[in-house]
Design brief:
The chain is an alpha/beta fold and 400 residues long. It is 35% helix and 23% strand. The strands form 3 sheets. Strands 1, 2, 3, 4, 5, 6, 13, 14 and 15 form a 9-stranded mixed β-sheet that branches. A 4-stranded antiparallel β-sheet has the order 9-11-7-12, with helices on one face. Strand 3, helix 3 and strand 4 form a beta-alpha-beta unit.
């Protein structure tokens, strides 16, 4: 399974993945998912929001145990973020069939669409639509860098955008959702453990800073006559680092767009996207406010106009305690397995569903902690331990 998926959407130049929502690479990933489901005799469906589901048993019976993750990537992302959870879900089912496990509850495997928001800027579109956190109208207004709207992109990929909307009936049938994911950090590497259980996800968001200045000649315009938007943008980037350090948080300007983007032209417009996350809402608010304040003061001093818009926001997630403790109880039976509980700054579909369905997460050790990079990696024996742990969890939940 892993080897079949590995080449899909991979850039030969960077070795990273470019599996953006509703592109050809995304379609190829979806084909892979459908083929895996059908090869196992599972009932396959795509829901109104483009998420893919594979069922063992009839979901209408309710109280289903569902596992899965996403297959899309950030620009030049790694092979594990998302796909490890989906491949492990199918592999765990194979292991349970090998054990002869009898399920008393329906078992579902899901691929949530557009988790990274790499193309349209909003994280977790598939799960947000399904949970009602994003309305169809809001989704229809999402556009990519080429001005293509989400509905246009979906239609081009063969999915009807007029069906988008909340799916409470589907969520009502889910008794527990468990997402396995490669750890995006080094906690397990530092503790020497293979598997971890998630406790919480930090509140986090994405803010677009639009610095509007005045285009001019780089060679003839006196410094005093300039309204250069690149300068307050640079101040915002440095302020993000300062404010994050002060708040014990993280803040990143990882994406920037410059118009007209000429070497010998003072820009007219610089757009910068801030990603910030903190252990609590107060810390996050302090970072974003501090960055905006520094940017506004510097912009005003240079006659540059600044607009700030929040494009994506996810409040703090405190995973269901009963399910978290049930996972710890089930995995605690494994003699040679210690399973620490740890928080994360990374967003996930499990976090979006957390308000609507009991959700939990399993993390698989990432020896370097590197993620959102072609260098992202997890050792095969740790991944196998993840499949085994997921199988134990699904068996423990689906038999109760
Ligand atoms: O950005 C995140 O935390 C996740 O990878 N979408
Ligand atoms: Mn990611
Ligand atoms: Mn992910």
């Amino acid at each position: 399974m892993w080897a079949e998926l590995l080449p899909v959407g991979r850039s030969s130049a960077s070795g990273g993945y470019r599996r953006y929502a509703w592109t050809g690479a995304d379609t190829d990933c979806r084909t892979w998912f459908r083929e895996q489901a059908q090869a196992r005799g599972l009932a396959y469906e795509t829901d109104r929001n483009g998420n893919q589901w594979a069922w063992l048993g009839d979901p209408a019976a309710g109280n289903a145990v569902v596992t899965g993750s996403h297959l899309d990537s950030v620009p030049d992302g790694g092979a594990f973020d998302g796909p490890l959870g989906v491949v492990s879900a199918f592999a765990a089912l194979d292991e349970l069939r090998g054990r002869g496990t009898r399920f008393t509850r329906p078992l579902g495997i899901v691929n949530f669409g557009d988790e990274e928001g790499a193309r349209f800027g909003l994280a977790c579109v598939g799960s947000r639509l399904t949970s009602g956190a994003l309305t169809a109208g809001q989704a229809h207004r999402l556009t990519d860098a080429d001005g293509i709207t989400l509905p246009q992109a979906m239609e081009a990929a063969g999915h009807d955008p007029d069906t988008l909307g909340p799916d409470p009936e589907r969520l009502a049938r889910i008794g527990a959702f468990v997402e396995l994911h490669v750890e995006q950090g080094r906690a397990l590497d530092l503790s020497g453990d293979r598997i971890g259980i998630a406790s919480a996800i930090w509140p986090h968001g994405r803010w677009r800073f639009d610095f509007r200045g005045e285009a001019n000649h780089a060679g003839t315009t006196r410094l005093t006559d300039r309204h250069d938007p690149m300068l307050p943008y640079a101040e915002a980037v440095l302020a993000a680092r300062r404010e994050a350090e002060l708040a014990g948080a993280v803040a990143t300007f990882g994406k920037v767009a410059v118009e007209p983007n000429g070497v010998n032209a003072v820009p007219s417009l610089v757009r910068g996207w801030l990603d910030s996350r903190a252990a609590d809402q107060e810390g996050l608010d302090a970072v974003v406010a501090g960055v905006e304040k520094a940017a506004r003061e510097y912009a005003a001093a240079h006659g540059v106009d600044l607009g700030v818009e929040c494009e994506s926001f996810t409040p703090v997630v405190d995973f269901d305690h009963a399910l978290r403790d049930e996972l710890a109880r089930i995995l605690g039976k494994e003699a040679d397995l210690r399973v620490p509980v740890l928080g994360t700054g990374a967003g996930h579909d499990a976090g979006i569903l957390s308000g609507r369905v009991p959700t939990a997460m399993l993390f698989v050790r990432n020896p370097t902690g590197v993620s959102h990079s072609p260098a992202e990696h997890a050792a095969e024996d740790d991944c196998a331990a993840g499949v085994h742990a997921l199988a134990d969890v699904l068996e423990g939940l689906a038999r109760t």
